[in-house]
Amino acid sequence: MENKIKVGVVGYGNLGRGVELALNAAPDMALCGVFTRRAPEKVRIQSKNVKVYPVDELPARAPDFDVLILCGGSATDLPVQGPAFAALCSTVDSFDTHARIPEYFSNVDAAAKSAGKVSLISIGWDPGLFSILRLYGNAILPDGADYTFWGKGVSQGHSDAIRRIEGVRNAKQYTVPVKEAIDRVRAGEYPALSTADKHTRVCYVVAEEGADQKRIEHEIVTMPNYFADYHTTVHFISEEEFARDHAGMAHGGHAIRCGKTGKNGETEHVMELSLSLGSNPEFTASVLVAYARAAVRLSREGKSGAFTAFDVPPAYLSPKSAEELRKTLL
Amino acid sequence: MENKIKVGVVGYGNLGRGVELALNAAPDMALCGVFTRRAPEKVRIQSKNVKVYPVDELPARAPDFDVLILCGGSATDLPVQGPAFAALCSTVDSFDTHARIPEYFSNVDAAAKSAGKVSLISIGWDPGLFSILRLYGNAILPDGADYTFWGKGVSQGHSDAIRRIEGVRNAKQYTVPVKEAIDRVRAGEYPALSTADKHTRVCYVVAEEGADQKRIEHEIVTMPNYFADYHTTVHFISEEEFARDHAGMAHGGHAIRCGKTGKNGETEHVMELSLSLGSNPEFTASVLVAYARAAVRLSREGKSGAFTAFDVPPAYLSPKSAEELRKTLL
Fold it and tell me: The sheet that has B232-236: what strands, in order across it?
């Protein structure tokens, strides 16, 4: 225990619970505390002998941790917590608002550099592993194109949008990649595809008793930005079916790089990373835990500031020695 | 030109030609010389204003280069050239004899460290990109299993073995992955699969006139180590068909990591890197060129010794700045 990496988890929702599970599978790391905005006594965690603290105590308790895994959301939690906690301890987070990454990076970088800590931002599978495939793909095949397909998986934002419609009791929206579009990309056709060309939207809706289902369906499929540009299917189901069939958090997708080599670009290559994830939060948590190990290693090397998955040598994610990795996995 | 990375190519076969092509697509790198064991005047390269030198001149000319890309074979060339040239200049190679990697690493490491140079060994797609998928997979999903499928693609060793049979004029052997086996792995069945369970062998043979085709087929399918344990198909074809249909060097494959998370391992995940390569040597060369850029960057940081793809941050493969990468690819 004494030599293990001491990990703190900030925020105990689906992602925080996933981190707790992933740490159980890490031989060199230990969960040493959970921080929450709720009343600590109301947060029941699975691990025994691990304390739950009010997040206000983080400044005082940070020196007891090697790294904090930030499990808040990208919309409102991380923009505040990321820079604030980077000034206290090395951190890892899954900030995923693509358009705001440069700004977020710069805020976290400044805080981490002043404190002499390491912060790994935007870790997960997209941004994260898919970004890495895009980077390797662009570097190896500079003459080419990137395609990303998401799903089948739940979009929280789209599910929320449906739930705001009058007469809707509950709803879940799946983003489903269009198989024909994937096949065209894999065949090296270099099709021009919008997000709507690449995905359909499938909605499962529990309506209030007596609600006008035709009106609800119409409001969904014509909703600007969210659904109007997409091929959208709406299924009305019972509360029981909803609970039975749509509680899961599976997700996944395909990041594809197509590229040409040869004197006149006559040789075609396709690189594809496919993920099929039984649970989006459990997988993302497992990625965060591996990068928490890397953050500690970078910090022990004397590095400081913000970094992304692009900056981390793959070997830093593993508890095994370089020699063992070369022997067993190369 | 003056600010470009100065690259030397050692060995001008299929791989060396591929490197020359890949360098044309790299805005920040320039081919500045080719070294050969043949008489230089007999080696015709595509690039104008680039000289071909006898490999014996490498010790004297090495200071004119930032990095050498070694394009020799793993059986006899690289075990000698790797350590010898690592003492002269930073190098990148595609050493792929898995069992001998630890020994090769140690020889190259000693030479590169004494000389204060950087050598990246075993770069390509397997070892290389597939190894990276295995490493990310093992670090993220420690409770799981690795599966690697190769092909469809030509195995040089198996083609050579057929050509040694009496009465065979020419032959090409394709390693073909078994689709049902891939499907079982993707479905999370964790099947126990030997290399023979995962691949079939398809042979195209041009027989000498009057040769006994039944005997040749029998000698192929019963050949120990190479074919006896596999499902092997033999097709006899004409010299014309051989030249028309079997001149290509396409290859590819699938590296798959299946893993479990959750309290009792109840959640299944599959990570898969698939490659479909129009030309094995052109793609491998493109990987080598991207890592040559990384070797120069590591060297400029003051690093020395041997490294593998595991030790290189993804960003080091790209000519773009960290800021641009975060903005465009993360």
Answer: B153-154, B168-177, B199-207, B232-236
B256 bridge partner residues: B147, B272
Q: What is the ipTM of this complex?
A: 0.96
Beta strand spans in B182-322 (E) = 199-207, 232-236, 251-261, 267-277, 305-307
Chain B residues with CB under 8 Å of A127 CB are: 330
**C-alpha closest to that of B36 among B53, B15, B23:** B53
Q: Minimal CA–CA distance to A199: which of A163, A262, A251, A130? A: A251
pLDDT reported for residue B1:
54
Contact A324, B144 (CB under 8 A): no
Question: pTM for this structure?
Answer: 0.96
Q: Is A326 in Cβ contact with B186 (below 8 Å)?
A: no
Beta strands at B199-207 and B232-236: parallel, antiparallel or unpaired: parallel
- In three-state secondary structure terms, B142 is coil
Determine the Cα–Cα distance for residues B271 and A290; give it in Å rounded to an integer.
15
**Could A21 and B140 be called an inter-chain contact, meaning their C-beta atoms sit closer than 8 Å?**
no
Nearest to A306, CA basis, from A99, A135, A122: A122
Residues of chain B where predicted confidence (pLDDT) is lower than 70:
1-2
Instruction: Identify which of B146, B308, B330 has the shortest CB distance to residue A122.
Output: B330
